[in-house]
Structure formats: structure tokens, C-alpha cells
Amino acid sequence: MNGVSLLTMAVSLMAAGSSSGMSAPTAARVDSVHNLVAIEFVESPTSGFAVTGGLLGVPDSAGRFPERYQRSDPVTGRMALPGRPAGGDLLIFTDLAPGSYRVAMVFLGESKLAKQLLKGESFPEDRILVYGDTLSQITFTVGERQALYLGRLVRHTRPSLDDKNEMWKSWIDWNAGDERRALQSLAKRKDLAAWKDLVSAQLVTLEKSHGAASER
Questions:
Q1: Phi/psi at 102 (nearest 5 deg)?
Q2: Is the bond preceding 59 in cis, omega lying within 30 degrees of 0?
Q3: Residue of 167, 102, 151, 161 lying closest to 130 (CA atoms)
Q4: Number of domain units in the chain
Q5: Which residues of 189-209 are buried (b: 16+ CB within 10 A; e: fewer)?
Q6: Exposure letters 67-92 (e unless 16+ CB within 10 A, then b)
Q7: Is residue 215 part of a domain?
Q8: Which structural domain range is residue 96 located in?
Q9: C-alpha span between 14 and 66 (Å, rounded)
């Protein structure tokens, strides 16, 4: 899928949310809301893809995540802002209205290494739809002034030995990842200076927790 198709899809999703009874995205967002949620996405084996963005899903007014993906709830007016890459394999979502969300899609594009190796040749873009997945760890609740790390999603790709219709098979699983390393990486980014206090506070909490565990 090319970049134009991805952009068209994202715009149409936003339009669907705004046409379902919500006056505007700002109706679901308060300027004072300040938070950051991060998740990692990696591939095994490593490919030439890099994280380029992502989308969240929101529950309906009863608090359930509907089977059909939605990024806004027409009753509450709450909307999930799109995410952006934050270096390496990290995807971040910021300044979300307090509430529950579910990671829905991860967008992948050409990595810097692939650009160097391909030298101008086109490289396909990809999207990973995880909204309907059964992984409970990608559903989260966030409040104001929080920095959350959701762990790491891993897409495994292997040759298909028992399916004549497909040469490759893939599946996604979750692991806890390295929260400290991920947050340290975010704390160093100049473009995330506005969230550094939240990230630093979470790092302090991790250090205290690690120290208490070591004393036991």
C-alpha cells in the first residue's frame, strides 16, 4: 500500500468520526491534558521496515470495544489522536483525553538502512491491523500527567510449509520489552521536551521499584 492510500484511509477514518455526531476533535480534548503512551513494534527476523505512525481505537459509550474499529465515540465525543514514530521501533501517542484505548494499527515504511541499501528503489509500505487481536496488553487506560509504556509487539514471519496458497505465514505476540531503555530514549529526544517531566518521573518510579526489589 502506498503513502497516498494510507493517507486516504486515515483521512476517511477521521471523517467518519466527525460525521457521526461529534462536533469537532477538540470537543474530546482539553488543552490541559498532558500524557504520553509508548509502544514498540519489531519484526523477527528484522526487515527493512520502520515504524512510521499508528492509530488507536476507542470503546463505545458503554465502555466496550466494538468489533468494528472506531477512533471516536459519537455519544461521548471522545477521539483517539493518531500516533507518531519516536525513533527506532517506538510509536507514541500524546495528550489523549483520559480514558481507555486500544492499539489498532501500526504503520510501517522504509527504514533509513533500507534507503541506503536500495539507493532510490521503491520500497512498499505496510500496515499492521491489531485492533481485533486478543492481546489484552494493547488495551490501556491513561489519565492526565502519565507516561505509560505498553511493551513490545513482535511480528514473526516464517516460511509456510503446510499452506500451498501462501509462501509465508506471520503472527504477532507481545512481550514486556525494556521499559527503562525505552523511556531513557524518549527522555533524550528534543522533540519530546514537553513530555520530559512525565517520562523522567516514570523513570524515577522504576528506579525506586527496582531498588526496593533488590533490598528484599
A1: -140, 130
A2: no
A3: 102
A4: 1
A5: eeebeebbebbeebbeeeeee
A6: eebbbbbbebbbbbbbbbbbeebbbb
A7: no
A8: 3-177
A9: 17
- 83 backbone dihedrals φ, ψ, rounded to 5°: -95, 170
When pLDDT is cut at 50, 70 and 90, the band that residue 120 belongs to is: low
Residue 55, C-alpha cell as written in the block: 492509530
Whose cell is 527493512? That residue is: 48
Question: Confidence band (pLDDT; 50, 70, 90) for 171?
Answer: confident
Q: The C-alpha cell of 47 is what? A: 526487515
> Pick from 47, 41, 39, 74: which is nearest to 59 by CA?
74
Whether pTM > 0.85 for this model: the answer is no
Cα separation, 122 vs 105, in Å, equals 23
Q: Is residue 177 within 8 Å of 151, Cβ to Cβ? A: yes
Answer whether 37's CB lies under 8 Å from 93's CB.
yes
Mean pLDDT, to the nearest integer, of 141-158? 93
CA count, 13 A, side-chain hemisphere, 72:
26
Q: State in Å, rounded, how far the first CA of the chain is from the last one.
A: 52
The more confident residue out of 46 and 85 is 85
Q: Would you say residue 213 lies in a domain?
A: no
Tracing cell 459519537 back to the chain, one arrives at 74
Whether 216 is covered by a domain: the verdict is: no
